[in-house]
Design goal:
This protein has one helix spanning about 75-80; strands at about 1-10, 15-35, 35-55, 60-70, 80-85, 90, 100-110, 115-125, 130-135, 140-145, 150-165, 170-185, 190-210, 215-225, 225-230, 230-235, 235-250, 255-260, 270-275, 280, 290-295. It has about 325 residues and is mainly beta. It has a 13-stranded antiparallel sheet, with no helix packed on it. Strands 5-6-10-9 form a 4-stranded mixed sheet, with no helix packed on it. The protein is globular and about 70 Å long.
Length: about 325
């Protein structure tokens, strides 16, 4: 059981505009197993949200965005069942898993309404993710979703559009970040891991032909430097995908071809654990995906006429 309260206010002062809201909620959940009752969640939380914008001129805009949210674990992650992967590895549900909260802040400077420079942070208490641990009683590697103390991500970035002639549109995204994840009670041990990482993404749209045939080619890709996830040490990853779009019959028909993860590389090839008395090495298997989509817009649609709604019974 529980309850929520919400309040919001907004104001426009010309060059400056603001929208601010605040939500408070309280939830309590109890769990009964074998006749014994225990409290899973007993939590009060506040969720602020704000959007502030100041326009110095059409070429210089400053924005501050603050948001917060709550994420609940899936049914399968809390279901107290065991699934066997092989003779040495199992997946277990965690009935004690709690929902996580996230608090995000983003400061944007927009130049000429197209170049974006940003600083951002995201703090997630009770962040949950699936992690393995070696059982103390049996020779088993147990994978289970766990609540960490917190996850903290801070960084800076830029989004730069580049147009080459009238046919090639490119958007480049650059980000530099620091990631920290901490848990002071992880199966009778603890960890506090942090990592500096970078992400580069490039999205290209190429207008091969605007007339007949109307063809557009998209090529996108990204690179992420080595990162962490709980006790995992993740290697770098990258992705290259491409697509072709053909519009015909006065744009009523559209045929789209996509080839995703061309080099089968969008997951970390190197996944290591060398902490809290655990040592393991894993490799990921990946696949490329190819899909075809066709759509047709039927013309000549006319809205049907409906009888006027009779509201006399409501006293109006």
């Amino acid at each position: 059981y529980g309850g929520t309260a919400f309040v919001e206010a907004s104001k426009d002062f010309g060059s400056f505009s603001a929208t601010v809201s605040l939500k408070g909620e309280y939830f309590k959940s109890e769990y009964t197993s074998n006749g014994e009752k225990s409290v899973l969640w007993d939590d009060f939380a506040v969720f602020p949200n704000a959007s502030l914008s100041y326009t110095f001129s059409p070429y210089h805009i400053l924005q501050l965005n603050i948001s917060s949210d709550k994420k609940y674990p899936s049914y399968w992650s809390i279901n107290p069942q065991t699934a066997y992967l092989n003779a040495y590895s199992v997946i277990q549900g965690n009935p004690s898993l709690k929902p996580s909260r996230s608090y995000e802040g983003q400061l944007l400077y927009i130049y000429k309404q197209k170049y974006i420079f940003m600083a951002f942070t995201e703090y997630t208490p009770d962040y949950f993710t699936q992690l393995p641990y070696q059982s103390d009683s049996v020779l088993k590697n147990i994978f289970r979703f766990e609540n960490l103390d917190f996850r903290l991500l801070t960084g800076i970035g830029a989004v730069v559009p580049v147009n080459i002639g009238s046919r090639i549109n490119t958007r480049i995204t650059l980000q530099g970040m620091r990631l920290q994840e901490k848990d002071k009670n992880y199966h009778n041990s603890s960890f506090n891991n942090s990592k500096y990482l970078a992400r580069i993404a490039v999205n290209n749209t190429i207008n091969i032909s605007d007339a007949k045939p109307n063809l557009k080619l998209t090529v996108s890709g990204y690179y992420v430097s080595p990162a962490i996830q709980g006790i995992y040490e993740l290697g770098s990853s990258y992705d290259v995908s491409a697509g072709m779009k053909w519009s015909f019959a006065k744009e009523k028909g559209t045929l789209t071809l996509n080839y995703n993860n061309i080099f089968q590389s969008n997951m970390s090839k190197s996944i290591k654990i060398n902490t809290v008395n655990q040592y393991s090495r894993m490799k990921s298997l990946e696949y490329s995906f190819f899909n075809v989509a066709f759509s047709w817009k039927f013309g000549g649609y006319k809205e049907r006429k409906h009888e006027k709604f009779d509201s006399s019974r409501f006293g109006k």
